[in-house]
Write a structure and sequence with these properties.
Shape: globular
Number of domains: 1
Distance between the termini: 35 Å
Strand order of the largest sheet: 8-7-9-14-15
CATH architecture: Alpha-Beta Complex
CATH superfamily: Creatinase/methionine aminopeptidase superfamily
CATH topology: Creatine Amidinohydrolase
Strand content: 25-35%
Number of strands: 15
Largest sheet: 5 strands, antiparallel
Structural class: alpha+beta
Order of helices and strands: HHEEEEEHHEEEHEEEEEEE
Helix content: 25-40%
Radius of gyration: 17 Å
């Protein structure tokens, strides 16, 4: 497993791409209200990325399970949709929905990738708790990640947090390395299994990781819809998804998908 270690110059380039992603997601959170469609949100993200001179990462990605390349700049997944929801003008948001938006760009050859689950109007206590717990998993990873630590130690704490809340961590989708390509080594799970323990990741300065816990209220099992893209929970209960791109640096880590100061 060849993991690329990034220089300070490269991390700065990744930070600039990440800032664009952060600004777009903040705008989408502002605009995502009952009656708005995910297609409209996609248009906003596309326009903002273009204005910043960025290429969006997801549009045009191919899958062996889908007849068409992914058509959107954002993945817009509502309620029981876990990931890879296709933005559509027909998909109107309703009061009480939760919407997970994943977005990425490439700027001057370097990538940024982040995701957030947002409340639409007034959501149930259960859905608010789901979002809070999932965000907490990401916070644990950011608080703990530092050179010399084994990823299994952090992933174990993330998984434990979800289970204590009565939720399940999705195992079919994991985080990843990121740099000049959207998906690079290593795979970064949010849980501990035998494969991770056999091939643990020791964090090193210069590693850049997209950490993205996905948590379900019910079963961890998921299924793919007929469109070949949209993944939903098998029991149709809600799912949440949060993601940041971080760089491992001396003494800890830096979140790269934050707005410019």
């Amino acid at each position: 497993m060849a993991i690329t270690l990034r220089s300070a110059r490269e991390i700065d380039m990744l930070r600039k791409a990440g800032a664009v992603v952060a600004e777009v997601l903040l705008k989408l959170q502002e605009m995502a209200k009952p009656g708005v469609s995910t297609g409209e949100l996609n248009d906003i993200a596309t326009s903002m990325a273009k204005a910043k001179g960025c290429e969006t990462l997801f549009k045009g990605v191919e899958s062996p399970y889908a007849k068409i390349p992914f058509p959107g700049a954002i993945c817009a997944s509502i309620n029981e949709q876990l990931v890879h929801g296709i933005p559509s003008y027909k998909a109107k948001l309703h009061d009480g929905d939760i919407l997970s938006v994943d977005f990425g760009v490439r700027l001057n050859g370097y990538c940024g990738d982040s995701a957030v689950t947002m409340a639409i109007g007034s959501v149930s206590d259960e859905n608010q708790k789901l979002m809070d717990v999932t965000k907490r998993l990401l916070d644990i990873a950011i608080e703990k990640s530092a050179p010399g630590l084994k990823w299994s130690e952090i992933a174990g704490q993330m998984e434990s947090c979800a289970k204590k809340a009565g939720y399940s961590v999705v195992e079919d989708f994991v985080g990843h390395g990121i740099g000049t390509e959207m998906w690079e080594e290593p795979k970064v799970p949010n849980f501990v299994n035998r494969e991770l323990l056999r091939n643990d990741i020791v964090l090193r300065e210069g590693m850049v990781l997209a950490i993205e816990p996905m948590v379900n209220i019910g079963t961890k099992s998921v299924k793919l819809l007929k469109d070949g893209w949209t993944v939903v929970t098998r029991d149709n209960k809600c799912s949440a998804h949060f993601e940041h791109t971080i760089a491992i640096v001396k003494g800890g880590n830096e979140v790269l998908t934050l707005p410019s100061k």
